[in-house]
Amino acid sequence: MNIVLVTGGWVRIPPQEGGGVEVYLLNLAQQIVKFGHDVSLIDGKYTKDDPDMEIINGVKVIRLESFKINWFSHDLNFLLSQIIWAQKIKSWLKDKNCDVIYVCVPILGLALSIFSKRIKKRLIYSSHSLRRDKASYSFIDKIAVFLENQIVKIAKLTIIANGITAEKIVKQAKVDANRVKVVTIGIDTEQYHPDNLIGNIKEKYELGNDNVVLFVGRICADKGVEYLIKAADIVVNHYGKHDVHFLVVGPSEQFNIHKNTISNYWQKVNQLVDDYMLQNKVIFTGSVPVDDKIKLYTACDILVVPSIVDLDPRVPIEAMASGKPVIGTNVGTMPRRIKDGQSGFIVEPADEKQLADKIIYLLENTEERKKMGVFARKTVEENYSAGQMASRMLEVFKSIG
Question: What is the pLDDT of residues 95-112, one digit of tens each?
Answer without folding.
Answer: 999 999 999 999 999 999
